[in-house]
């Protein structure tokens, strides 16, 4: 952990300070997103993209590499101006904002977020975090098909297929959140079909275990036009359940499946998963706190297939700055030519089909 702290301090010291937040892009004028009417749909992506481009360029002009977070689930209670200032101070250009439905059905929180702050949030469809997706996966998938297309979302949210309780849930006593839905279930087919028909990417949470890899490959082959982001590269919570996954296997997946992408979320190198007491972030050297050479080389060879992610939720917002620094530590472990691509260019190209 000392080595990681030293690396993070080095990174922080090497990043020039940003200009005042209002000079990067306007701050939200309301405290909470629900204080304004929801954004009209379909979303005006042309106008939003102009805002987002201007924001990225403003950050680059300060000498800071902007980041696009491809996967976070945020709540309607978010302190809009306060968090906007945090994003600006940390050099986070955009966050793919997916709402937290909390058992109320499809969440329109992304519409509120974009209306309150059209500079910082990419509207992302609701992945139905428990209990909504778990309660009725096929029904929720059908709702997703309707709302994603009708409202014009550029990205579908994170759908959980195999998901163990997360560390923050375990700390809160929520060990009951142990999700399992087959990746070739009727609900999964509906999502893959939607992604293939529309070209809109979607995200899956699928724990890394030998038994789940064949069905993933089957679905990727069956729907070659469905662009899939497999969340959390090399996050392995139970090592003994995997004998296949590693940098070489991921390389083979990328080379055989041009429709597969990854986000790079990880906890700190020495941050054991409470239920197994194992370090889940397998791309770290857990002693030095640096990216392992084989993973760095893999990402450098295929940088357009990897994207930054913070995996935020309303319960862990206090850890935002540390999550940003960890992702910047990943970038620091890559060759310079790959850093900007992974930091924000790959996400932009995937979502909008153009290079920035």
User: Main sheet: which strands, in order across?
Assistant: 5-4-6-7-8-11
CATH class: Alpha Beta
Low-confidence stretches: 1-22
Give the terminus-to-terminus CA distance: 35 Å
Q: What features would you describe in this structure?
A:
- Helix 10 links the parallel strand 6 (202-206) and strand 7 (228-230).
- It is globular, with a radius of gyration of 19 Å.
- The chain is of the alpha/beta class and 356 residues long.
- It contains 14 helices and 11 strands.
- The strands form 3 sheets. A 6-stranded mixed sheet has the order 5-4-6-7-8-11. Strands 1-2-3 form a 3-stranded parallel sheet. The chain has a two-stranded antiparallel ribbon with strand order 9-10.
- Helices cover 42% and strands 13% of the residues.
- Helix 1 (2-14) crosses helix 13 and helix 7 (137-151) packs parallel to helix 9.
- The longest helix has 17 residues, at 45-61.
- It has one domain: TIM Barrel (Alpha-Beta Barrel).
- The two termini are 35 Å apart.
Provide a brief overview of the structure.
The protein is α/β, with parallel strands linked by helices and 356 residues long. The chain has helices at residues 2-14, 21-24, 45-61, 80-90, 109-116, 132-135, 137-151, 167-171, 186-198, 213-222, 247-256, 293-301, 320-332, 336-352; strands spanning 67-74, 92-99, 121-124, 158-163, 179-180, 202-206, 228-230, 260-263, 284-285, 290-291, 306-307.
């Amino acid at each position: 952990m000392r080595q990681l702290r030293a690396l993070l301090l080095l990174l922080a010291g090497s990043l020039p300070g940003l200009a005042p937040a209002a000079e990067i892009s306007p701050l939200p004028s309301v405290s909470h997103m629900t204080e304004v009417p929801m954004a009209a749909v379909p979303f005006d992506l042309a106008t939003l993209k102009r805002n987002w481009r201007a924001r990225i360029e403003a950050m680059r002009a300060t000498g800071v590499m902007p980041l696009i977070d491809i996967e976070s689930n945020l709540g309607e209670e978010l302190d809009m101006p306060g968090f906007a200032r945090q994003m600006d101070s940390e050099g986070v250009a955009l966050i793919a904002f997916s709402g937290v439905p909390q058992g109320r059905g499809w969440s329109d929180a992304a519409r509120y977020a974009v209306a309150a702050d059209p500079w910082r949030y990419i509207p992302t469809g609701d992945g139905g975090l428990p209990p909504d997706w778990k309660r009725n996966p096929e029904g929720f998938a059908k709702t997703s098909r309707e709302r994603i297309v009708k409202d014009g979302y550029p990205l579908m949210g994170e759908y959980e297929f195999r998901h163990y309780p997360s560390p923050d849930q375990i700390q809160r006593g929520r060990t009951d959140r142990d999700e399992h839905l087959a990746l070739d279930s009727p609900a999964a087919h509906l999502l893959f079909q939607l992604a293939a028909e529309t070209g809109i990417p979607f995200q899956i949470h699928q724990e890394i275990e030998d038994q789940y890899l064949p069905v993933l490959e089957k679905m990727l082959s069956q729907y070659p036009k469905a662009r899939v982001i497999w969340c959390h590269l090399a996050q392995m919570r139970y090592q003994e359940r995997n004998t296949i996954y590693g940098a070489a296997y991921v390389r083979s997946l990328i080379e055989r499946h041009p429709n597969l992408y990854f986000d790079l979320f990880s906890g700190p190198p020495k941050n054991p998963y409470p239920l197994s007491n194992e370090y889940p972030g397998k791309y770290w050297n857990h002693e030095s706190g640096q990216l392992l050479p084989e993973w760095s080389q893999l990402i450098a060879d295929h940088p357009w297939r990897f994207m930054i992610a913070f995996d935020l939720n309303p319960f862990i917002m206090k850890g935002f700055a540390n999550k940003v620094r960890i992702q910047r530590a990943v970038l620091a472990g890559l060759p310079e030519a790959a850093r900007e691509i992974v930091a924000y260019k790959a996400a932009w190209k995937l979502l909008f089909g153009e290079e920035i």
